[in-house]
Amino acid sequence: MDILFGILIKAIEIYTYIIIIYIFMSWFNAQQSSIGQMFARICEPYLEQFRRIIPPFGMIDFSPIIAIIVLNLAGRGVRALYFWII
């Protein structure tokens, strides 16, 4: 059970880092590279859920920030569940 929760928490952390890298790549227009396209296939389905709810304000898209906050809350929820089970 420890391994399952550890893998889940680590996966959430890694996905958060991937989203952050994807955001930086969009700032530098590097999304057209093969790595950028791979990150787009990984991140866009999750980010699209938030873009439906939160429209961009001018040139600024706040949906990735909210998506990262939700991921961090999910990680905290997994940790709390783990400690509750133990």
Describe the structure.
By secondary structure, this protein is mostly helical. It has one domain (2-85). 80% of the residues lie in helices and 0% in strands. α1 packs across α2 (34-53), α1 (2-27) runs antiparallel to α3 and α2 (34-53) packs across α3. The longest helix is centred in the first third of the chain and has 26 residues, at 2-27. It is globular. The relative contact order is 0.15. The model has no long low-confidence stretch (mean pLDDT 93).
Count every helix, treating DSSP H or I runs of 4 or more residues as helices.
3
Fraction of residues in H or I helices:
over 70%
Biggest pleated-sheet summary = none
| Tally of DSSP β-strands | 0
Round the mean pLDDT to the nearest integer and report it: 93
Question: What are its keywords?
Answer:
86 residues, mainly alpha
Summarize it.
The protein has three helices and no strands.
Task: Note the topology.
Layout: H1 2-27, H2 34-53, H3 63-85
